[in-house]
Write a structure and sequence with these properties.
Elements lengths: L1 E4 L14 E4 L2 E3 L5 H9 L18 H7 L5 H22 L21 H17 L6 E4 L19 H4 L7 H26 L2 E2 L2 E2 L10
Parallel strand pairs: 1-4
Antiparallel strand pairs: 2-3, 5-6
Length: about 220
């Protein structure tokens, strides 16, 4: 079972909360760093993402040259789409700040304006690659933890953290608009994940057609 997360938080025990468990007292911690998740899926662990020059596709270039002439037009198109998506993922990850994931910010740090929507889309792409390639049959994906301490600058909300907004005039029209916008963002990211699954052809349907997806 693949466990994936987006937001990093440090608030007592919250950083140790997990999505699922393999058994009693056997937590499965989420992988919150796109670089690490990519390396886990594609097996590249011997080069730094900082100043990365080569693509993981370089390792299979000769094999691809032998395979492509034997494919029909439809299969060549699918292969090209797959290779393009892998390369775009590499570029997206390589463009992240070089120190992303190295330091978990304290919640008191008001400068925590991490671009979580950008991270979320990369993580969604990686989850879809893991499912489509059969590297996992089950994936748990958490955008923000239940006591989320992140600020949301992409929505225009930096005065408080997500958790604080739920307890600060949440019944007022302004508070309701704030919570609506935050919930809408979560749903939009979920819709992005579904669209990526739907774009992957699998047999007589799509990856989404052959999956059970639960949003909570």
């Amino acid at each position: 079972s693949l466990q994936v997360g987006v937001c990093q938080e440090s608030h007592g025990e919250n950083i140790h909360r997990n999505l699922s468990w393999a058994g009693y007292d056997r937590a499965l911690p989420p992988e919150m760093i796109p670089q690490n998740l990519f390396d886990r899926l594609f097996g590249v662990r011997d080069q730094s993402w900082i100043g990365r020059k080569k693509s993981v596709l370089d390792a299979v270039r000769e094999d691809l040259g032998d395979l492509q002439p034997a494919l029909g037009q439809a299969d060549r198109h699918r292969l090209d789409e797959h290779l393009t998506s892998v390369r775009e993922l590499e570029r997206a990850i390589a463009s992240l700040p070089s120190d992303y994931g190295k330091n978990v910010k304290e919640p008191e740090d008001v400068a925590d304006l991490t671009d979580y929507p950008r991270i979320a889309k990369i993580q969604s792409d990686l989850v879809v690659h893991a499912l489509a390639s059969g590297q996992t049959r089950v994936a748990s994906y958490m955008l923000t933890k239940c006591q989320s301490l992140v600020r949301l600058p992409w929505l225009g909300y930096t005065r408080l953290r997500h958790h604080d907004y739920t307890h600060t005039n949440a019944e007022s029209p302004e508070g309701q608009r704030t919570m609506r916008d935050i919930c809408r963002w979560h749903v939009q990211e979920f819709a992005y994940l579904l669209a990526k699954m739907k774009s992957v052809q699998e047999g007589d349907g799509t990856l989404l057609d052959h999956s059970c997806v639960i949003f909570a």
